Amino acid sequence: MRSISAMRSLLLCASSPTFLRSSASALRTPLSSLPFRPDLSCSKLGPARLSTTAGAKPRVAGGGSVMDVRAAQSGEIHVIVGPMFAGKTTALLRRVQAEAGTGRTVALVKSDKDNRYGLDSVVTHDGTKMPCWALPKLSSFQDKLGTEAYNKVDVIGIDEAQFFDDLHDFCCKAADRDGKIVVVAGLDGDYKRNKFGSVLDIIPLADSVTKLTARCELCGRRAFFTLRKTQETKTELIGGADVYMPVCRQHYSDGQIVIEATRIVMDIERSSDPRCVVSSQ
Questions:
Q1: Is pLDDT larger for residue 229 or for residue 204?
Q2: What does pTM read for this prediction?
Q3: Domain 1-22+216-271 class?
């Protein structure tokens, strides 16, 4: 689009001549698939379920049923936030994979609104992926997995958490009542730098909060914000590098000026285009 090209040209004039593309931080070691693939037709988890085999330690020792053990142990909530292209999903997958490596049973969840890479996997911008459950609401997770299988899950990873309206209630229940380790990754702010979804609501519940940064596409400095490159104004607009770019504070402010100027120019062009004039006759 001409407006996007004009915006990028204006931004680049005020920035370093070197154009740097942003990408998620590279993993130190490649991530493999989760130890199990959720199966909607079966309530049992695969070989990664918690056991007392060699090398895998149960989180809580002692007898009793699974629910008794859950009631006796305390859960955790860890939150990973930042702008787009900051490596939030990469950090989430690394944490979940590490937990699975200790013998814990893990499960990944994402919103079914995000279908950019399909609905059966959580995928990073550089292509690393793990199988997941794609759900409209977190409250449906236990029903989808099955009560028996849910009780055996130790770690729940939630990607694109800003799309879940029931994030706060789910995290409270999973960590406080069910003793789960919940790792949440999502945007803390939208393209206007306003609160996005319920991610900020769970900060008071969290054991830890990690704020990641990306690299500004226009100058290479640390990027804290997400700049939308289109004229679309709705808050939920799923897209990648074609729609968004990570930017530093200076280029976020400059970008908003350019976007507004572009919008005004486009409005003027539309009003002067005979094809856009509606006859009153």
A1: 204
A2: 0.68
A3: alpha beta
